[in-house]
């Protein structure tokens, strides 16, 4: 059977369906992939955050083949060039840009501190 995926949001139910049709639990999938069940559950819940390489590994375990095909001419969305903003090196950096970057850095540091305080395990590299 073929499934046309037009948006990334369609991937979650399709992955779940293939897994369940093979009679596999998330724990079984995780074991085949060499990761924790929680890590696999996170991938299945949000496949948009996974790399293509990881998705391909999951598909291999499920025995699913990824096939790309070109849409019919009438189905394809027209390509429109994006408007570009020209930025030159001589433009001075705005003060608000500096403030925004400082806020982002402070937020990143807060997240690092919170993760360290909770003893959260680092993300598995698989």
Strand content: under 5%
Overall spatial form: flat
Any guess at the CATH architecture of the domain at 8-62?
A: Orthogonal Bundle
Output the structural class.
mainly alpha
- In quaternary terms, these chains amount to single chain
| H and E string | HHHHH
Number of distinct helices: 5
Q: Specify the biggest β-sheet.
A: none
List unreliable stretches of 5+ residues.
none
The total of beta strands comes to 0
Would you give the CATH topology of the domain at 8-62? 434 Repressor (Amino-terminal Domain)
Q: What is the average per-residue confidence, as pLDDT, rounded to a whole number? A: 84
**So what's the CATH class of the domain at 8-62?**
Mainly Alpha
The separation of the N and C termini measures: 29 Å
Biased composition (Basic and acidic residues): 94-126
Region (Disordered): 73-126
InterPro entries: Cro/C1-type_HTH, Lambda_DNA-bd_dom_sf
Pfam families: HTH_3 (PF01381)
List the helices and strands and how they pair.
Layout: H1 11-21, H2 26-33, H3 37-45, H4 52-62, H5 95-118
Would you kindly provide a written description of the structure presented here, covering whatever features stand out?
- This protein is mostly helical and 126 residues long.
- It has a domain at 8-62: 434 Repressor (Amino-terminal Domain), CATH 1.10.260.
- It contains five helices and no strands.
- The chain has helices spanning 11-21, 26-33, 37-45, 52-62, 95-118.
- Helix 2 packs across helix 3.
- It is flat.
Features:
single chain; 126 residues; mainly alpha; 434 Repressor (Amino-terminal Domain); flat; Lambda_DNA-bd_dom_sf; Cro/C1-type_HTH; DNA binding; Transcriptional regulator
């Amino acid at each position: 059977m073929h499934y046309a995926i037009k948006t990334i949001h369609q991937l979650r139910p399709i992955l779940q369906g293939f897994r369940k049709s093979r009679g596999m639990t998330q724990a079984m999938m995780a074991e085949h992939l060499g990761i924790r069940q929680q890590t696999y559950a996170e991938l299945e819940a949000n496949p948009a955050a996974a790399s293509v390489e990881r998705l391909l590994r999951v598909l291999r375990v499920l025995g699913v083949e990824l096939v790309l095909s070109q849409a019919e001419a009438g189905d394809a969305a027209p390509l429109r060039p994006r408007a570009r903003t020209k930025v030159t090196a001589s433009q001075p950096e705005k003060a608000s840009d500096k403030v925004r970057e400082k806020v982002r850095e402070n937020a990143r540091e807060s997240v690092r501190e919170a993760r360290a305080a909770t003893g959260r395990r680092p993300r598995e590299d698989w």
